[in-house]
Amino acid sequence: MARRRESVTVTLPPEATDWLDKMVGERIFANRSHGIELALLELKKRMERGDRTP
User: Fold this and answer.
1) Confidence (pTM)
2) Residue 22, in any domain of the structure
3) 49: DSSP letter
4) In a domain, 41, yes or no
5) Could you tell me if 14 and 3 are in contact, meaning their C-beta atoms sit under 8 angstroms apart?
6) Does the N-terminal or the C-terminal CB of the chain have fewer CB atoms within 10 Å?
7) Number of folded domains in the chain?
């Protein structure tokens, strides 16, 4: 059974949302949520390996 997702609200600087929207437009990410999810999972993976530098 898939885990349920929780909705959150984030505030980002315009340059971050501009880049995110560009990646969505280029179909790198399905949508903004997908891009943010992948970025957070990558950061989590790095930090769990011991790299504590965000």
Assistant:
1) 0.82
2) yes
3) T
4) yes
5) no
6) N
7) 1
